[in-house]
Amino acid sequence: MKVKAMLRIIGVFCLIISLCATCYSGPVQAKTGKDLRLDSGKTSGKGYSNSTQLITGDNGHVYIVWHDDRNGNSDIYFDYSSDNGVTWQTIDTRLDTGDEPGASDSSDPQLFSDGKGHVYVVWEDRRNGDKDIYFNYSKDNGVTWQKRDIRLDIGDAPGASDSYYPHLSSDGKGHVYVVWVDYRDGLHADSGDSPDVNDIYFNYSKDNGVTWQTSDKKLNVTDRTGFFSPKLCNDGNGYVYVISNYEIPFVWGDIYFNYSKDNGATWQTSDKWLVNYQGEGVSRVPQLSCDSNGHVYVVWKGGMYGDDIYFDYSKDNGATWQTSNIKLDTGGVINYFYSPQLISTDDGHVYVKWTQRRNGSEDTYFNYSSDNGVTWQTSDKKFPLSISSDSQLINDGKGYISVVWSDLRNGNSDIYFNYSVDNGVTWQASDKRLDTGDAMGASDSFDTQLISDGEGHIYTVWKDDRNGGGDIYFNYSMDNGVTWQDSDIRLNTDDAPSVNGSYYPQFCSAGNEHLYVAWNYNPDTHSGIHFNYFFIDKIINVNDFVKVNPITSTYHQTSDTTGCPDGFVGKFSFDVEIKNTSNEQLSDLEIKIIELTGGNVLIVAEGEPGGEGTTMAIPKTGDYSDSELDPGEYVVLPFIVCLKELKPFELLVDVLGKPGD
């Protein structure tokens, strides 16, 4: 359909200028920047920067934290961007402010944002002797931090005993939670055959990290040995859940659980141990998930030799659990397997992915439940895989499930992908190779990661050796994984391919068609932090949002052909008023010529005269001087047409732009 406004001009011309309201969806351009070095406060190539964590905040904010040894021993550093990763601070910020730079080791930072301007960081710190747990926070999107960091493991003298493995969470309502393993009443084992003696401790803030409890809380009631890597989950309604694996090496293991129903103020006075096969093997690497409806899920590897996948669940906020664990791997002779991955949704879907060596082949497997973990499939799903632990599962909350992995089917490892559109019930018959820039199996691609923004866009990034050493490559889909780009994209663009090794990529997305990627690079045997960003510049047809009115008083014909190609006989100029008649704010406005008859061409300020397909930006004048055209506002756009002949012609255009704030 064409929406036309016919205008007749006295003289030899009959001008028809029309809006084209066809099915045009607008151009989509994928753009990246030049990669940036973020550990900017040190000389390039001096010291090591490691343990990087990258997350997003609100309104285009991106945050990164790491530890580096520029000053001697390692310190905690932070940087941020407030414009979707385009620019960063010229000097990074040191967060472990309680001692002199480099005086002692501060390491393994954890980073969290509540999406409301608060940014939290927790880490292990040796300033007092043995490791303590320290915390710092910002309440203005990372611009300023506290001059004095806060010690959280306050039940013994500073540095008197080790505290490890802090895990950080927040409910976005002012509550901040930290759990860790603590040795104040225990000891480190002298050998790997003996268990450590330690406990699980917890502290919390209810005012966005400003103040914390004066006494931290020991969570495990029964004294046992061998706690490792505790994890937190909170449901945003006051319930806080903690798990940890507990193990006597080569003898026995269990999964510890406790919960609070008042934002961490009080906890249960009896321990809950989830494993129902005590004395029959070890239990390791538990994963925890929870929803806002009272469901809590835990998955782990366990059994006689730790070679099966077990699952348990609670449907009453952790108060009760099942009398028997559920075994999710459904068949074959199993030799070994790697850490499981657990995902749950508020509508009752639970997904588990793991890597397992079964029947002589190492592959990725998948199982799912559609009823909050009550029942599972009797046959798990196998994805071909030949590299251990290098796979990742995601879901978009709308039924689309995707998995990516490194695969040796062609020789060296390539990146492969598959997806389900029905919550994991069925999958595509053929996998899709994503590292498309070289021949299949010609070089190794690995350390792959995968995310979805929930809006149909799926992104994957990996380390790639196609050029000799490590580079960071990327591919993306805009239709939930159905199609991908024919050519993958190298992100470490600051130097020639493989000049400096780039490795350990990680990335995040805020769901705004922007993707952020950070990685380590290794010039001169030292490591630094580099970053790049990617965004989809999506402009749509906004004809239905505007009214276009040629201004008849501006019509002007001349025999002057300045600026026109040879062979033209004159020019015809006029102005057009473009008014926003919608309730949406419009930005990035431009005109695209769909049809211009008679062999005529349009003079465009940005380039050579053009005909059909030519685009021209709408000048930022009048109501549009702030680059935004609000409802009811208008902007005037001048047109100059080079005439091939002095006869009527038709001009058909689209107005393109981005609606919304």
Strand pairing plus helix content: what structural class? mainly beta
Sum up the overall morphology in one term: globular
- CATH overall fold name of one domain: Immunoglobulin-like
Total strand count, please?
48
Can you put this structure into words, describing what you see?
Helix content is 0%, strand content 49%. It is mostly beta strands. The protein has a domain of 137 residues: Immunoglobulins (Immunoglobulin-like). Strands 1, 2, 40, 43, 45, 46 and 48 form a 7-stranded mixed β-sheet that branches. The chain is globular and about 95 Å long. 43% of the residues are buried.
Identify the notable features of this structure and list them briefly:
single chain; 661 residues; seven-stranded mixed sheet; disordered N terminus
Which helices and strands appear, and what pairs or packs with what?
Elements: E1 2-8, E2 14-20, E3 28-32, E4 36-37, E5 49-56, E6 62-68, E7 75-81, E8 93-94, E9 106-113, E10 119-125, E11 132-138, E12 150-151, E13 163-170, E14 176-187, E15 197-205, E16 217-218, E17 227-234, E18 240-248, E19 252-260, E20 272-273, E21 282-290, E22 296-303, E23 308-314, E24 326-327, E25 334-344, E26 350-358, E27 361-369, E28 381-383, E29 391-395, E30 401-407, E31 414-420, E32 432-433, E33 445-452, E34 458-464, E35 471-477, E36 489-490, E37 501-509, E38 514-522, E39 528-538, E40 540-541, E41 546-558, E42 570-580, E43 586-596, E44 601-602, E45 615-617, E46 628-629, E47 634-643, E48 649-659
